[in-house]
Amino acid sequence: MFAKTPEADFNCDYPGYSGLWCRLIMAVTSYAMTNNSVAVIHGPANCAWAVRNFCQTDYSLYYGNPFLHMPVTNIDQDDVISGGADKLIATLKEVDRDYKPEHICVFDTCSTALIGDDVQSAIKTAQKDCNARIDYMSSAGFTTPPLGKSIEQTALSYADMMEAPSEKLENTVNILGQYKEQQDCSPVPGKKKCKNRRKYKDDASELARFVEGIGLQVHRVLVSGNHDYIKTAPQAMVNVISCPTWGFPLAKKMEEQFGVPYIKQCIPIGIEPSKKWVMELAKFTNKQQEAENFIQKELDELMPVFEKTKSFVDGKVALIECGRNSQTAFARPMALALALQELGMQVRLFGLHPLELKAKAMDYEYFMQEGFDPLILDGNYAYQQPVNIVHVIEDLGLRQAGYVYFTQDIFPAARGGVFDPASAPRVETGVHLRRVLNAPARGVGFKGAKALYENIIEAVMFSARGSRPTLYGRVHGGFYENF
Amino acid sequence: MTNQTRQIAIYGKGGIGKSTTAGNLSAALSCLGKKTAQIGCDPKADSVNTLMGGDFIETISDITRQYGSSETSLNRAVYRGFNNIVCIESGGPVPGQGCAGRGVLVALDLIRKYRFFEKNNIDIALYDVLGDIVCGGFAQPIRHSYAEEVYIVTSGEYMSLYAANNIAASIKLFAQQGLNVRMAGIIGNLRNVEKEEEIITGFAQKLGVPVVQFIPRSELVQKAELQGKTVIEAYPESGQAGIYFNLAAKVLDNREMFIPEPVSKQEVIRLLDLARTEIC
Ligand SMILES: Nc1ncnc2c1ncn2[C@@H]1O[C@H](COP(=O)(O)OP(=O)(O)O)[C@@H](O)[C@H]1O
Ligand code: SF4
Ligand SMILES: [Mg+2]
Predict the structure, then answer these.
(1) How far apart are alpha carbons A446 and A62 in whole angstroms?
(2) Rounded to 5 degrees, what are φ and ψ at A240?
(3) Model ipTM?
(4) Is B234 a residue whose pLDDT tops 70?
(5) How far is it, in rounded angstroms, from Cα A268 to Cα A275?
(6) Which region, left, alpha or beta, applies to residue A145 given φ > 0 means left and ψ of -120 to 50 means alpha?
(7) Quick one: CA dihedral A24, A25, A30, A32, positive or negative?
(8) Model pLDDT for residues B5-47, shown as the tens digit of each residue
(9) What is the pLDDT of residues A153-167, one digit of tens each?
(10) Boundaries of every domain in chain A
(11) Which residue on chain A is closest to B103 by alpha carbon?
């Protein structure tokens, strides 16, 4: 399938292909994970609305980013004719005055990029009158290659914000391709904040636990923190990687630019991948003994749950949905597949768009090099449309055989009727519902594996109930059965 | 019934004499009793200078930027020059910024939206359009429902013929796309190159269009220009004015339109070579 897939450096051959989230949306969303900073969008107000809508409905829901102010230069037709530099300069000064941020980043859009507005010179002019440091990230939607690539390009911009290290900090590690989730903050002022409400905290905390567990220190988790935090990232001894889509390109650039070495890694889910992740870092930093002790302690706790889960699913098929938004969720389904294989399951990935496969070649190649090459269902799936899981089950003749369905999207949660959690075991592993109390976990490392195992056990036991679908499922299920 | 405005576009290489020719043509047409409008489509915004006593007028771009796009803004951009000729400049950004082509498009849309020509009973509207067709914006005057009649101003020099050939190619393309835009002919604005008339005539024959008028180089043009006037206004009795009157009469009478057949760059050069060899 990989060989059949065309290269992903184009977009003109597939008009409309990469249109769901434009580069601007990805760029501003990543920047929104930084602190004391304001994103200024140089373009029409509607571009800002597109981004804000995305951040509010998706990201704040999943990750708890609070309400985002999103100043925009509000370019109109007259500005397209005469150039928008003056408006940008005025907006930057206004933002600096009113928000008093430490850092401002300018994002351009289709309209301002098409007329070739000189953003850099405008920034230079505004910088003289602003306290905040101002940077620029190229983000015009029409320059977007398939989404995986646009994330890669955006990630590189963060290296441009960094400075050559004046000193190296012993035993320190950066985690790249990760952010500190803000699940404990509420967008509603005064609303009660709840902590530890899930089986699993978050990926950054789990990876930090690994780092600290072998006697090292986390220097930076990127992308997050304020400008000083990002700027000083090259002081670390080594970079480790969580999500390769963000992490690899940034790690490579930091190595080229600042000589910070990196360890090539990919989201560790399950026992062996987690062990490997820890051991690689330990080897690099000479902490093998500490790592062995750490791993042993973790396994002592984890193995009973692992064995129990295995007894439930050994030999069954794992249907792993790459999801409607497969473009951002490829590395994770692959990592998940690896973890499920450990449990003795036969893994089948589906709903992955071939073009995205190439766009995210680095994720795929990582697993290939590891010798992991799972079955991917090569179906005729419409891009970014949910795959009808009922058809997949029937096509594969799985109804009797026994399977567990690992969903990637909120969509299946609405399904009922024939396909109901009470009759079909399913585990939500997508980013959705993350802020919902007791929502299923989607995690990395030993703690993530434990949460995953517990979810599998729950799903299988619940499906054995064989009761009538929920009221919600009965009301809405019919509609989804027929789509 | 409202009077149908004849809309004519004058194209040609920058500095070749479009505005000079357009200004004198407008002046002559108005003297022949036609209600005339001249619309400068060039960010330089100097098309109607010689009709306005040498003044630069405020452009549509300047005005809409300040007051927004409304009929009031459009009317603000309308000036009356020599013989009550309607003078408008589309304007545009300062050099090196923004998108001038978009400025032309917006200006023309405004004129159409508020039915300016109809409301003012304009008989003939002349669009004086920047140099070459560099992008879609500067092709606007000959796109949908604007000027369908194009005159190209050229001298016998290579660059000028080259630009004229490009414009002819655009006209052919638009005609093939089903637009009614046609070429009426070539206006030879002479620069005193040797065998210039022959070169231009040969070029016109290749394109399959007539040379409507040769305009000799004359110092009266510059003298009038220094006074902020057209030759028609400053030296109405002169031979040069007579030539512009001739051109006006031919334009008024002309009913023949052509789809030009552009030639290759090589052919343009060959035309020049031929003329030169004959000289030697
Ligand atoms: N027939 C002519 N005789 C003498 N000078 C001319 C003639 N036609 C144009 N010019 C001069 O050439 C210069 C450029 O002409 P202009 O009409 O402004 O060109 P364009 O509008 O094509 O850029 C003007 O200064 C004008 O005086
Ligand atoms: S940057 Fe371009 S693609 Fe993105 S929202 Fe704005 S106009 Fe749309
Ligand atoms: Mg001119």
Answers:
(1) 22
(2) -115, 165
(3) 0.71
(4) yes
(5) 8
(6) beta
(7) positive
(8) 999 999 999 999 999 999 999 999 999 999 999 999 998 899 9
(9) 888 999 999 999 999
(10) 23-144, 165-285, 295-479
(11) A81
Does this chain's domain A23-144 share its CATH topology with A165-285?
yes
Query: Nearest Cα to A199, choosing from A429, A465, A412, A460?
Result: A429
Closest CA to A301 of A386, A213, A363: A213
Which residue of A77, A82, A111, A120 to mutate against B (max B Cβ within 10 Å)?
A82
Q: A275 CA distance to ligand 2 centroid (A)?
A: 43
CATH of domain A295-479: 3.40.50
Specify the pTM.
Answer: 0.79
Domain A23-144: CATH class, spelled out: alpha beta
- Pocket lining: B137 vs ligand 1, CB cutoff 6 Å: no
**Residue A183: predicted pLDDT:** 46
- A81, A114, A118 ranked by CB distance to B103: nearest: A81
Choose the catalytic residue: B34, B35, B132, B229. Answer: B132
Nearest CA to ligand 2 atom 2: A141
Q: Which of residues 79-118 of A touch B (CB under 8 A)?
A: 79-85, 114-115, 117-118
Q: A405 pairs with which residues across the strands?
A: A319, A426
Dihedral sign, CA of B234, B239, B245, B251? negative
Mean pLDDT of chain B: 92
**A240-277 pLDDT per residue, tens:** 988 887 888 899 999 999 999 999 887 899 999 999 99
Question: Is residue B222 in contact with ligand 1, taking CB distance under 6 Å?
Answer: yes
- Asked which of A362-371, A374-383, B253-262 is least confident by mean pLDDT, the reply is A374-383
CATH number given to B6-279: 3.40.50.300
**How is domain A165-285 classified at the CATH fold level?**
Rossmann fold (3.40.50)
Residue appearing with tokens 């009913």: B255
